[in-house]
Each structure stands twice: as structure tokens, then as C-alpha cells.
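Researcher: Here's a chain I'd like modeled. Treat it as a single chain, no partners, no ligands.
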Amino acid sequence: MSEAPLDITESLDIRNNRSHSDWTANDWLAASVQPTLVLGSMFLVASMVANDWIYRELFAAIMIVLPIPLCFVGERIWTKRKDWLLEPKEMLEDVGWLAAGAFIWVPLYSNFYETPISEGFKALRDTAPLRVTLEPTTIIGYLGCAMLVMLISSFIYYWLHRVQHESLFWWRIHATHHHITKMGCMRGDRTHPLEWATLLVATPTALALMGASDGVMAVAGAFGIWSGTLNHSNLPLKSMPVYDWLFATAQQHHVHHAHLRRQADSNYGCNLIIWDRVFGTYCGDDYEGQIGAGKAVPLSVKDQLALAFYSDKRLKSL
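Model: Modeled as a single isolated chain. C-alpha cells:
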């Protein structure tokens, strides 16, 4: 990734100087949308599990599927940046990446599927030396246990993600996700197959070691799905004060996808931002400028899949 020119940096600094005291009612509304949807989804799923709703399977399916179509429509009604609106070809490409994540990679790690990998995590849970189980029965219990699991899994995710940015060797499997020049709700799954093998380790490991029940996993999963979708969306969502000290927001993640290295090498937490604050990699800019790594130009699907195998020289030239 190459550094942006000085004049762009100065322009960003000017646009990032607006304080919360200058916010209008519309600004506060834009900041309230993400916390309401993300925390609301966690509460609804926790209620569903704790009270054993009759149609809980159908409701869970709706909660998993709803974020992307809702955000997709929202992006065309309440657009953050018109230059990020996708062309039909780009949409079709995103659908392919989304399908691969939903039907190939995520199921390998899920307790809802019987696979050698998921069975391995179950074995890890059964032999974990901690001998801890998270099997709450109340709404508050499910929320608290999900937060505990998220804190641990996001700590693992933070360091895996940070190493990918700081090491060229590991960057090659993460570069696919950053070689996008537009943000959109379907772009969270634009992830190289080899990266799924690293970033998906965090949550299953935390779940296994802590003996988390399927209900706890469902609550944490609701948070991850809504947060991840909103964080990549082309919606003018602002970072809500207080909420954005612990939870990652769309604006924080847009900054992470920026072309400017100062911004891109920050905000590694996609669900929780607390570890960035603790370890000094937090960036609170409210404008992200150009999106994309390297030359910030779209790459073919072939290049995106082959990035992991390119030489260092070719990788840097893209």
C-alpha cells in the first residue's frame, strides 16, 4: 500500500476536526442507527433463546439473512458516497464472494454443521483445561456470556489482523479484502480462502475453551453478522460516543479500508474496537478519503485469488 499525497492528508485533517458539540439532530440520528440494530439484534436473540420461542429457528434464520438486503436497499435510499454505488458486474462479483463465505467457509467452523473442523473444536471444548462452561438461562446471562466470549475472541482476532498488516508475508492473504475501492454491505466476505483459515479461528477457539452453549454462540453471532454488515456498508453512519469506545463502528472500519497508510494500519477490530484503544492502534478520523490498497484500482477475481501466491515485488506493484 502506498502513502497518499500530503495535500490529501491535510484535507483529511481539516475534515476530521469537527467535534460532537457541532452535531445536528441528523448527526445524532445517524449515530444511533448502528447501536440500535446491533445491540437490538443481540437482545432479541437472547430473548428468543432464554424464553424458548416457538418459532426460534425461523426467527434465527431471519436475523441471519436480514442485514444484507436491508442494508442493500438502505444504501440506495440513504447513501453515504455516490462514488461507492456498485455497478451490476460488481454486485454479481460480491454475490459470489458472499455465497462462498456462507456456504463453504463459515459452515466448516459452525457447531450447527457436522464437519471434521467443527468436531475438532468440540473436542477442544471437551478437553479444555479451564473446565468452564457458559450455559446461562436468562436474557442478561446470555448477553453477558456473549460479551465475554466476544472480548476474548476479538483479542485473538485483533492480533491476527494486526500481524497481517505488519508482515508482508501475511499481508498477501489479507490483501484481497483491502483491494476494494468501494465500500458496500456485501463486501465483508470478500476474503481470500486462506484468510478464512486464520481469522475464523478466534471465535470458535474462544467458544470451545469456554464451553459456550449454542445459545451464547447465537447471541454472539447476531452481533457479528449485524456489526460486520453495517461496518462495510455504504451508509452515512456516524460513531456514537461511548458506544464507540467498546464496539467497532462503520466509520471506524471505513477508515481501516482507506488508502492512506496512517488510517489503514489502524482500527483492526471489526466487532470490538477496545483492543485498538488499549494497544494504541485506534484512529478516530471521521473521513476516510480514497478506499483501497496499493494503487487503489479494482483487481480481477483471478488476481484477488492469486495475490497470496505472488512474489513480494508483484504484490507491492498492484
